[in-house]
Design goal:
Chain lengths: 248, 321
């Protein structure tokens, strides 16, 4: 089974977010980057599938060379090889088009993405990729089993879950549940050493449109100071929620 | 050139998020001098014209039985057919689980720009500029597009439902859906509970509750308020609560009117999913818990003491109002 895991390279979840150039760009100064958390679940799932069914796990990232440490980390976790498309990933359709070209060239059976990148929270790339390739798409995917060319999947729906089937190849937007938190693999010394000699192919971008652009960023307004209420005066809280906040 | 709204329903009822999408679409229609058309796909509530009350000038129904179970490609193909038939410039889709599946497929099939996670009305229309949440609520971004057609996916509860007085004239849309490429085997939906993203009141608890069995206190408070329940990530990781209740950066992002956080420290990853709640109440035994900085109201105290008292006070309030 040939598996492709698409990874995005995002600010660490504790990062403070600042903007620069008159609020027209994200300030990466002092920000450390990681594999998008959703993609880590997908990568581990891919390794489990490979262990069970055989095959290969390739990771792909669309982005500049500065993302290579993140790609190497995915190789250290256990991916066999990697592809980097050398382009700025500023638009969802543009990124999906790059990934579609890679999938067409290499014919993967399963393409695993995360449900969204935690930086721009687009939630666009996986569905667009599936549509460009005319493949089945399962989003917010929390379960995947493969048997021959058939897949059984589970996805979250509003207020519950749905079980579904589809035939390979397919694209999914995954999250925790594909594997558990405790299954996530942390790169060990051997993995890190091996990752250095694994193949990381750099490809030029293919032509594709960019549909959107950011005109301006802004930080959310800070909150007004908290009102503290004594623990033995919960009636006061109920009163404030009713008369001041008007939420009950 | 009009506005099309994807009108979702579950089990014979329109979702609140659908009313919100209609209200939003009606405002775009008013601002651009066009009409708002709702599109209902598959099995539907009996009264479709009710969408007029939320801003739909017309309600189209594509009732092909093949659409009764959800499939992203099939639903997108019908939306595309409606866009062609009606002539859409804007498509409004709620950021529900199904909405998030359909929107990117539709954007490719229709050659339209997609802007997701939108939390306000467009600031301008030529070119379109609309504000969205980014960086897990740590930033806001004004997106713009030069594409002819734009799909706007809105965050549930960010815009609000508004009543209008439109006709909601019902028509049938004949569209042959694309073949389904997934098959639903079973649906497991919690009965009689408001889906967390749509809930207006949420009671949430963290590791401070110490054990799964102590959630009876949390559930009692939630029931008294008529609220949905949520939890922090470690709580769902330890299986004290189901994954579907996990809120935050890697869980669900919510923005209820009231979020009560009990025994949750307020880590930055937790705040990322809840900081947009209109009113935040924090109950924590540690006066230094970071969550107090993000709260509107705070109580320093032991949850096992404060929560039952709060439940009783709300019961008393409800009885006298
Ligand atoms: C990549 C990544 C992603 C993450 N994503 C998320 C996410 O999406 N959502 C999320 O929630 N977390 C997330 N986390 C975890 C996050 O960093 C915190 O560890 C987590 O939110 C802490 O949960 P908690 O507040 O329940 O527990 P704790 O931090 O242990 O806090 C428990 C709190 O309860 C209080 N307490 C104890 N006893 C009582 C009592 N009797 N009465 C009242 N208060 C009491 C304590 O004072 C403390 O403040 C993520 C972490 C990482 C690294
Ligand atoms: N630049 C990128 N390179 C490779 N994969 C990406 C990239 N951006 C997004 N993805 C994939 O698409 C998913 C959703 O991202 P997004 O649409 O940006 O929210 C991510 O979890 C990745 O799997």
């Amino acid at each position: 089974m040939k598996i492709l895991v698409c990874i995005s390279h995002v600010p660490d979840t504790t990062a403070k977010i600042n903007f620069k150039d008159n609020n027209t760009a994200f300030d990466t100064d002092g920000v450390s980057f990681v594999i998008n958390p959703y993609d880590e679940f997908g990568l581990t799932k891919a390794l489990f599938l490979k262990e069970k069914h055989g095959g290969t796990v390739t990771v792909c990232h669309v982005g500049p060379a500065s993302a290579e440490p993140t790609i190497r980390k995915a190789l250290a976790i256990g991916a066999d090889d990697a592809i980097r498309v050398d382009a700025e990933p500023t638009d969802g359709f543009f990124v999906a088009s790059q990934l579609a070209a890679i999938v067409k060239e290499n014919q993967y059976d399963v393409v695993i993405c995360g449900q969204e990148s935690i930086d721009y929270n687009g939630g666009q790339v996986p569905g667009m990729l599936a549509a460009l390739l005319d493949l089945p798409f399962v989003n917010a995917c929390v379960g995947l089993e493969v048997e021959g060319t058939n897949a059984t999947l589970e996805r979250e729906i509003d207020g519950g879950k749905e079980k579904l089937t589809a035939s390979l190849p397919l694209v999914l937007g995954g999250k925790k549940g594909l594997v558990e938190e405790s299954d996530l693999r942390i790169p060990n010394m051997r993995g890190i050493m091996m990752a250095r000699s694994k193949k990381l192919e750099v490809k030029p971008a293919t032509d594709a449109a960019k549909h959107t652009a950011v005109a301006q960023f802004e930080k959310p307004q800070p909150k007004a100071p908290v009102k503290m209420i004594a623990a033995d005066n919960v009636e006061e809280l109920v009163n404030l929620l009713h008369t001041e906040a008007k939420v009950i | 050139m009009s506005v099309i709204i994807f009108a979702e329903s579950t089990e014979g009822k329109f979702k609140k998020a659908t009313f919100e999408a209609c209200s939003y679409g009606a405002k775009i229609a008013a601002a651009t001098g066009s009409e708002a058309h709702a599109l209902v796909i598959g099995s539907a509530p009996a009264d479709l014209s009710v969408l007029g009350k939320y801003g739909a000038d017309k309600v189209h129904h594509a009732s092909d039985a093949a659409l009764d179970e959800f499939n992203g490609a099939a639903v997108a193909s019908v939306l595309k057919a409606a866009m062609d038939a009606i002539g859409a410039k804007y498509v409004v889709i709620s950021g529900s689980f199904n909405g998030k599946t359909v929107a990117p497929i539709l954007s490719v099939k229709a050659g339209a720009a997609l802007i997701t996670n939108v939390n306000s009305l467009p600031a301008s229309y030529g070119p379109l500029v609309v504000r969205r949440s980014a960086f897990s609520s740590k930033g806001l971004a004004d997106y713009t597009t030069s594409a002819d057609v734009a799909i706007i996916s809105i965050i549930p509860n960010a815009i609000g439902v508004e009543e209008h007085n439109k006709a909601g004239e019902v028509a049938t849309l004949d569209a042959a859906p694309a073949a389904k490429n997934t098959t639903v085997v079973s649906v497991d939906r919690v009965k009689g509970q408001i889906p967390l993203p749509e809930a207006e009141l949420v009671v949430s608890a963290g590791r401070g509750m110490k054990a799964a069995e102590n959630w009876t206190l949390i559930e009692k408070l939630a029931d008294t308020l008529g609220a949905a329940t949520a939890c922090s990530k470690p709580v769902s990781d330890m299986h004290w609560r189901p994954h579907t209740e996990h809120v935050g950066q890697t869980g669900i992002a919510i923005r209820p009117n009231l979020y009560i956080a009990i025994g949750i420290s307020g880590a930055i990853q937790h705040l990322a999913g809840v900081s947009n709640s209109k009113t935040i109440v924090v109950i924590n035994s540690d006066a230094e818990a970071p969550f107090f900085k993000a709260a509107d109201y705070g109580i320093v105290g032991d949850a096992f003491d404060v929560v039952p008292k709060l439940t009783a006070a709300i019961e008393a309030f409800k009885a006298s109002n």
